[in-house]
Amino acid sequence: MADAPYTPPAVWTWDKENGGQFANINRPISGATHETELPRGNHPFQLHSLGTPNGQKVTIMFEELLAAGHPAEYDAWMIEIGKGDQFGSGFVGINPNSKIPALLDVSGEKPIRVFESGSILLHLAEKFGAFIPTDPEGRAECLSWLMWQMSTAPLIGGGFGHFYAYAPEKYEYPINRYTMETKRIIDVADKRLAEVPYLAGDQYTIADIAAYGWLGNIARGEAYGTAYQFLEFGSYKNVIRWAEELFARTPVKRGIKVNRNGEGLVRERHSAADIDAVM
After folding, report:
1. Nearest CA to 60 among 258, 270, 221?
2. Crossing angle of helices 117-128/206-219, nearest 10°?
3. Distance CA 27, CA 267 (A)
4. Do β-strands 102-105 and 45-49 pair in parallel, antiparallel, or remain unpaired?
5. What is the dihedral of CA 149, 150, 155, 160, to 10 degrees?
6. Which of 5, 11, 25, 54 has its CA 20 to 30 A from that of 70?
7. Where are the alpha helices (DSSP H) in the chain?
């Protein structure tokens, strides 16, 4: 059956009761809704996040840096987006876009705010000289795949994920539209990974860390209910190989546990012992 026809009004108005998961926190305006002061730990990096695919990128990066011997100790504080924590004045002060993750780098004389997951990965990679190629060609390839991932995430999450799993009603057109885009995106990665071990080439980089946040989530069967089956994800053999290799890395296993509620997970991370206790 075709979707019911919809004629847009001359001027859109905000319907706060539009239903669906996350409807209570989505709004067409920016800025803080209430005053809050963010907590501050003792480490050089203060991460305010949630263990979604975007949040996992940064905690994986921190765990990779620590495993490689870099002084990248961090406090990871949970932002509960379902409760509207992202609209508190303290969080908005770090990220005016009110999206996780947001980082406060207090390792220097003056705190530096960094928001957007790709920007945080790049900031940390450049700060420590790790997980990013130093030669011009390799760096350009790495950044291209990093930006590719950043541009595709909304199609997978806000597009496919929303209409397939979270929308109050299922409609054929948007599900088909975003399923097609999601499968195309996965196919781009699959063809690239048929040529090289990692997205940027022979070297594991922030491009892989960024992409694993989303593709790894599907590969582990943790995304959008039955999405793995619906997308025939197992047919993308090169992506599966890559995802399995990344998941075999201890820092990846550690990073995906942070800022999540539940057994075997870590709501807040303030030392390695917090993750050690659930590994």
Report:
1. 258
2. 140
3. 26
4. antiparallel
5. 70
6. 54
7. 53-67, 89-94, 117-128, 136-154, 172-195, 206-219, 227-230, 237-247, 250-255, 272-276
User: pLDDT of 53-68, one tens digit each?
Assistant: 999 999 999 999 999 9
Please tell me the predicted confidence (pLDDT) of residue 17.
65
In this predicted model, what pLDDT tens digit does every residue of 223-273 receive, in sequence order?
999 999 999 999 999 999 999 999 999 999 999 999 999 999 999 999 999
CA dist., res. 76 & res. 48, Å (int): 6
What tokens does 183 get?
Answer: 């499968």
Strand, helix or coil at 76? strand
237-247 vs 172-195: helix crossing angle, rounded to 10:
70
Does 71 score more than 60 pLDDT?
Answer: yes
Amino acid (1-letter code) at residue 11:
V
Dihedrals φ, ψ of 105, to 5°?
-90, 110
> Using CA atoms, how far apart are residues 170 and 175, in angstroms rounded to an integer?
8
